[in-house]
Amino acid sequence: MSNIARHIAIIMDGNGRWATERGLKRVKGHEKGAEVVRTLTTYASRHPEIEVLTLYAFSTENWKRPKMEVDFLMRLLKNYLEKETSTYLKNDVRFETIGDLSRFSKGLREQIAKTKEATRHCRKLTQVLALNYGAQDEIARAAQALCAGGREITVESLEQTVESAKFGPVDMLIRTGGEQRLSNFLLWQSAYAELFFTPTLWPDFTPEELETLIDEFKRRQRRFGGI
Ligand code: FPP
Questions:
Q1: How far is the CA of 5 from the centre of ligand 1 (A)?
Q2: 176 in ligand 1 pocket by Cβ < 6 Å?
Q3: Domains plus CATH for the chain?
Q4: Residue with the nearest Cα to atom 7 of ligand 1?
Q5: What percent of the chain is predicted at pLDDT more than 70?
Q6: Are 131 and 58 in contact (CB under 8 A)?
Q7: Is the pLDDT of residue 90 over 90?
Q8: pLDDT at 223 over 90
Q9: Residue 94 C-alpha to ligand 1 middle, in angstroms?
Q10: What are phi and psi of 117, to 5 degrees?
Q11: Cβ(182) – ligand 1 distance below 6 Å
């Protein structure tokens, strides 16, 4: 039986380089990156296998970037959600997040809540944006919650408690931009994920390349620790 690409997770890397290569400011790369998010999400919503698309949009480490770039990303995200809520609805895409939202501005948090509420009933695809997300933090928070509830910490109890639990295990984890590392993304859910690293910078990533990677995924043998 061939592998099913039910949950695809992507580390969207390379926006800054894409812009710098063209003599543009880094933020222009993020702008183009947001367009690719829209194209890929629309494509995934029409794909027969993909049910969940998790995108690493802002890591717990990204706060270290210059304030101007962080502010730009926050504005971009808020405008994107505002503008794209109709696209989510048109394509029957449910919007969700993982990560600690408490550090974001009230305005952004309100917009996130609005888009989640508006798309709650959508069923074709769940798009999960990882925002102020770090997997070690996610696992530590789950362990703390179990401890606080006087529950035992086991693989099963952690599996049910991590914030990303409801989206299920990752089948394909893709990183664009040429680096070959996980950067604290979905460590728990990717225990048996197939990994794909492409040199393509995120603003150049296309549905055609995603399809090529899915073809490769189909040819891989997943044994989940068995033989
Ligand atoms: C990595 O590129 C990308 C990010 C840190 C942010 C990801 C954001 C987007 C794709 C756009 C906004 C998203 C939404 C959902 C509206 P980098 O800046 O690290 O690139 P570099 O490695 O070339 O410097």
A1: 24
A2: no
A3: 7-134+170-219 (3.40.1180.10)
A4: 57
A5: 100
A6: yes
A7: yes
A8: no
A9: 22
A10: -65, -45
A11: no
Q: What is the pTM of this model?
A: 0.96
Crossing angle of the two packed helices 26-45 and 207-219, in degrees rounded to 10: 60
User: For position 226, what pLDDT does the model report?
Assistant: 81
pLDDT band at 222; cut points 50, 70, 90: confident
Please choose, from the candidates 132, 128, 152, 130, the residue with its C-alpha nearest in 3D space to the C-alpha of residue 142: 152
Q: What is the pLDDT of residues 4-29, one digit of tens each?
A: 999 999 999 999 999 999 999 999 99
Q: Per-residue pLDDT tens for 18-68?
A: 999 999 999 999 999 999 999 999 999 999 999 999 999 999 999 999 999
HEC string of the chain?
Answer: CCCCCCEEEEECCCHHHHHHHCCCCHHHHHHHHHHHHHHHHHHHHCCCCCCEEEEEEEECCHHHCCHHHHHHHHHHHHHHHHHHHHHHHHCCEEEEEECCHHHCCHHHHHHHHHHHHHCCCCCCEEEEEEEEECHHHHHHHHHHHHHHCCCCCCHHHHHHHCHHHHHCCCCEEEECCCCCCCCCCCCCCCCCCEEEECCCCHHHCCHHHHHHHHHHHHHCCCCCCCC
Ligand 1 in reach of 161 Cβ (< 6 A) = no
> What region, left, alpha or beta, does residue 58 occupy, with left being phi > 0 and alpha being psi -120 to 50 degrees?
beta
Q: Active-site residue numbers?
A: 13, 62
